[in-house]
Structure formats: C-alpha cells, structure tokens
Amino acid sequence: MKVYALVGESGTGKSHRAQQIAGMKKIECIIDDGLLIRNNRIVAGISAKREKSKIAAIRRAIFMDKSHAEEVRAKINEIQPRSVLILGTSERMIESIISALNLPPVDEVIRIEDVATPEEIEAAKHTRQAEGIHVIPVPIVKNSICLK
To answer: Within the chain, which residues score under 70 in pLDDT?
Structure first.
C-alpha cells in the first residue's frame, strides 16, 4: 500500500483539497479526522469534527479509542486499497495515525502550501474562524458536507 500524507495547520483547507489530490494521484482511500473515505463515501469511522471538545476531537482523529481504530483497521484490511491519503496537522500526527491503524510508512508528504495558494489558505482559515465550517471530503451532489 502506498501512503500519502497531506499536512497543514488546522483550518487551512486540507479536507477541501483531499478529493482533488486523491483524484490526481489515483489514491483510493482518504483518512481524515477519524473517518475512512472511499469512492466519495464514508465507509468506516467516526468524525472528530462532531466531538464536543478539542481534546476529544484530537483523540478521535488519531484513533486513540481502540474500538474506533479496530473498526477502521478492519475495513482497510477488507478493502485492501493500493493507496491511502492521510490528512494531519503535522507529520507527528500522521505517524500516530499510521501506528494506530498499522499502516506502512509514508511514501510521500504533501504540504498544503504545495497545493493551495497563500490566498486560498487564508480564505480557508477565515471560513473556519468566522463561520465555524468544517468540511468532510465527501461530495453530496456537487458539494462537500459542512458541519457547524
């Protein structure tokens, strides 16, 4: 399995860019904030974006809950994807996710600054801070799911 990592600060547009990157690189699955996404559908996991506290969200996103991690691991083993894109705020976070899900090491790190302009990153930060919108990279018709 080839493992890609998309790294950037919280609120910089990683989730928004994930589908585009996956399409360009023919990546089969995305792991984002506690979810396993395949073919534009959530196939396993629980979204960290629904947690009530920041600490609980971080714990969810890095699969600290053993049953949550096992559910996602089992689905990955069932699917046997050739490639996966893991989203995280740091390479350390990516390594924590890899460890929790027993995935191979990262083959390629993509930084949000490499795929989004400074203006796009600032716009994403503004949207997160001003409107509290969180994107999950799963389109509904033509849009992503947004959570407030």
So the answer is: 131-148
